[in-house]
Amino acid sequence: MGGIFILRVISGTAKGHKLKAPRGVSTRPTSDRVKESLFNIISHSIYASEVLDLFAGTGNLGIEALSRGADSAVFIDRSQECFSIINENLRHTKLEDKASVMVGDVFACLKRLSSQGRKFDIVFLDPPYNKNLIEETLTFIVQNDIIRDNSIIIAERDIDDIIPQSIEAIKLAREERYGDTVLSFYRHGH
To answer: Choosing a second label site near 1 at 20 to 30 A (CA), which of 8, 55, 137, 190?
Structure first.
């Protein structure tokens, strides 16, 4: 298949559908094992939620959330290739009517969503490792007021990435380690 490897939707309406992903260092899709654990942890929050998938890559996480009953998802990635692949994956899983895909700088796109008054219940944050983008992105999310009370932000990171314990009303609530990958769960609320 040269250059392409296969991911799949684990559960829900699109269960078993294969997702396309570019091969190479530009994207690092979440493994099925990590994805399954992540969705087991947040399963009670997914139904009827509005999801934001930042540094979306293949759209793997947002598509899984849609398949499991999220109402809508916005995908943001700066890569034109990822933009095309996310759209193709959405068509293939028949979830495109619940999704919108934005190509461009994550911070510029967040500003645009904020100006439209958009708010999200679940945010997936999977930036390139070791670039200190998690703290910067969390700060930007708070400043632009795009999450609801009790929302969840899940940051996937390398074990060596340094992250904050809290930023204003966003607090680190839980962490799970899988090899060198860590999922950091932030909650927004009281």
So the answer is: 55
